[in-house]
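Exercise 7b. Backbone tokens:
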């Protein structure tokens, strides 16, 4: 059962049955680079994640094929939580991320009292930068996080973005 859907994609509750797809996504080096973190958990360790801690954690499904194409999760911050997305490697660069992010924002702003949602991506992640811009996120430099890239050792910046409830829903 979908929380929310459009003609091509639906978002359904994430369950531990989705763990294997999500685990494989995390094992992908491009995913790790996108989050500046080396993922070294076993599948059994990953399956111990407490899903119930998160108000919003969904799996994105292509309604035409029934394939699971990604996962979205809202962070735990109660004021301006971060919306994170993982599009599974075989489904990247096909528009799923933008559609899923838009649906997630619509649902979150409709069901929860948040005035703003934050998002972040690294300065070299052109796909995520374009997606956030297309959806209507605006740069929020106070949300920038300066880090050392765990793969290259060079300094990098995770750029901060925010979107307001009225902007996301075109109000």
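Sequence design result:
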């Amino acid at each position: 059962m979908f929380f929310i859907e459009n003609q091509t994609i639906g978002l359904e509750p994430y369950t531990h049955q989705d763990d294997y797809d999500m685990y494989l996504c995390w094992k992908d080096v491009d995913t790790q680079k996108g989050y500046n973190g080396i993922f070294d958990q076993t599948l059994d360790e990953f399956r111990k994640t407490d899903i119930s801690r998160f108000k919003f954690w969904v799996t994105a499904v292509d309604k035409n094929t029934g394939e699971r194409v990604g996962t979205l999760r809202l962070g735990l911050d109660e004021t301006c939580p971060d919306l994170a997305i993982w599009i599974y490697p075989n489904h990247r660069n096909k528009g799923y991320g933008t559609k899923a992010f838009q649906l997630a924002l619509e649902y979150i702003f409709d069901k929860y009292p948040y005035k703003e949602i934050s998002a972040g991506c690294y300065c070299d992640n052109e796909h995520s930068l374009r997606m956030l811009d297309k959806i209507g996120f605006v740069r929020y430099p106070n949300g920038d996080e300066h880090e050392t890239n765990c793969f290259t050792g060079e300094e990098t910046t995770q750029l901060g973005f925010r979107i307001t409830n009225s902007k996301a829903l075109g109000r």
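Instructor comment: The first strand starts at residue 4 and ends at 5. The chain has a mean pLDDT of 93.
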